[in-house]
C-alpha cells in the first residue's frame, strides 16, 4: 500500500498533467521533477514518472538522460517498496541515485502533513 498522502497524490497528477501540456521543454522538466519528488513513496507513480522522464529525454535526443532514466525505471519500484529513496531528489540523470536534496516547502507540506 502506498504511503503517499492523498493531497500529494493529487498534486502529483497535476504536475504530470502540466508536464504533458506545457510547450516549453525546460518547464516540462520542472514539472516532472516536482512530480518525482512527490511520487517516491509510491512504487507505481515513481516508476511512471521515470517512464515520462525517459520519453522526454528520447524526444529531446538526450542519450545521457535517457540511459539514466532506464536505470531509474529499473530501481524505482524496488526503492519505493523498501522505503529507500532520497527525499527531495529530482530524479534526473545528472543527480545521483541516492543524493538527498532540499524538498520545496510546498511539496514537503504535502508529503508530511501535520498529524
From TrEMBL:
<dbReference type="InterPro" id="IPR022172">
    <property type="entry name" value="DUF3703"/>
</dbReference>
<feature type="region of interest" description="Disordered">
    <location>
        <begin position="85"/>
        <end position="115"/>
    </location>
</feature>
<protein>
    <submittedName>
        <fullName>DUF3703 domain-containing protein</fullName>
    </submittedName>
</protein>
<dbReference type="Pfam" id="PF12487">
    <property type="entry name" value="DUF3703"/>
</dbReference>
<feature type="compositionally biased region" description="Low complexity">
    <location>
        <begin position="106"/>
        <end position="115"/>
    </location>
</feature>
